[in-house]
Amino acid sequence: MGGINPSCKFVAIFMVGLIVSLRYDTRLNVMVCLIALLLTVTARGVNRKRFLWTLGPFILAAFGFFMTGYFFADNGKEFAGSYGQAYITVASMDTAWQLGTRVLAFGSLALLFTLTTEPEAFFQSLRQQLRLSPKLTYALIAAYHFLPVVRSEYDLVRAASAVRGVRAWPLSAKLTLPMLVRAFRRSECLAMAMESRGFNPAAVRGEATRVPLRLRDAFFMLLPIVATL
Known about the structure:
mainly alpha; 2 domains; two-stranded antiparallel ribbon; 4% strand
C-alpha cells in the first residue's frame, strides 16, 4: 500500500466512502471494513500498536451508534424483542447494524489512508498529479511541519510558567496565549524566509522529488470503485 500513488489512493478511498454513504447496505459496510483493515494490517511499515490505539475510538463510536439505532429507531412494527421497557423491532435492528457498520467502514478507510501514506509524498502528489497550486501545497507542507513547533512552544511556555511558580491547567489562557504569540512569530519568520528566497507561486517551478504515477496506480484507483458499485 505504501507504494501506491497517494493521489490515486486518496481518490479511490474517497469514492468508496462516497458509495458507502449513498447506499443502505450492511454487507457492503462489513466488506469495506474488513478489506480496509486487512490492507492496513498487512501493509509494510504500519505500527500495529498505533493501529490498535487509533482503531479503539472508532469501535467505541460504532458501539454508540449501534445502541442508538437499537433502542431509539422507531421505524417498524415487526416485533423482534425487548430490553427492559424498550420495544425492539426488526427495522430498528437493521438500522442499528447499518449505523454501527457504517461508522466502522468510514473509520477503517480513514486508517487505511493515514497509516499507509507519507504526508510529504501526499502533498507533493497533490501538486504533481492533481495540479494543486504551489501556494496551497507549500502552505499544507508548512502547516504539517509546524505542528511539532507548536508542541515545543507549549512545552517551553509551560516549563517557564512552572519555574515562576504559575499554576495553570493544560488549556489555560496563561499557557495557550503565550504559546500562540510565539507560534505566530515563528510563522512570520517562516513566511519572510520564503519570500527572501524568491518564492513566487506564479513562477514555473521544478520538482525536487517526483512522485511516480504508474499503470498499477490507475488500476488500484478504479478497482475498489468498480467492486463497490
